[in-house]
Amino acid sequence: MPRMLRMPGKDVLPPGPKRDLVAELYVHYRLAARPPLPKIAALTGTESNPHKVSRETIRRLLTGTTTSQWGIVDALLIALCQLQERDPDGRRWPEPEDSRWDENDPTTCREHLRRLWNDDIDGLEPDEAPATPPAVPAPVPPARQASGGWGGSASPPADNPWATGFPAKTSTPPGGYSDEPPF
């Protein structure tokens, strides 16, 4: 009889993003009644689950010894949800009677697992993860100063070797060619 996998202890897999990811995978593994790895592997690579995952990769994901590409982790989730007869895009805790139910949390199983997977890849603790990327301020053009030349024309920026100090031409000269650089 094959040995069933157990959640790694904190001495083997310390608290952090990887443990959170593995713990979430174990939620689904337990709800699927701890199926044998060949049975899970057989469900991957099917029409409804296009990524074929080996049982060794499944074992390594469930023991926290690897973090695979999202497609592989998602294929494992789909297989475990099929064994539970559950939709991976359904609410994570669909029953109001469940003690984990939160009326204000419509997160799906897949969304929650993807967030944990990203945190593991980035090495972030859940409370360190940025909610939204910071806004990048728009670049401010450098101030141009008037020179003492004809008509007080502005001087070209020192970091632009193509600048002439004259306003840019907006039309092509009669010969059809422009003196402006092609970029």
Summarize the main sheet: none
Portion of residues in beta strands equals under 5%
Low-confidence stretches: none
Number of continuous helical runs: 5
Shape: elongated
Q: Fraction of residues in helices?
A: 25-40%
Q: Please give the radius of gyration in angstroms.
A: 29 Å
Helix-strand sequence: HHHHH
What do the pLDDT scores average to? 75
Question: First CA to last CA: what distance?
Answer: 69 Å
Structural class: mainly alpha
What is the number of strand segments? 0
Task: Pick out its properties.
183 residues; mainly alpha; 33% helix
Overall description:
The protein is mainly α and 183 residues long. It has a domain at 17-96 and 105-122. The chain has helices at 17-31, 37-43, 55-63, 70-84, 109-122. The longest helix has 15 residues, at 17-31. The protein is elongated and about 80 Å long.
Detail the topology: elements first, then pairings.
Blueprint: H1 17-31, H2 37-43, H3 55-63, H4 70-84, H5 109-122
Structure summary:
With 183 residues, this protein is mostly helical. The chain is built from 5 helices and no strands.
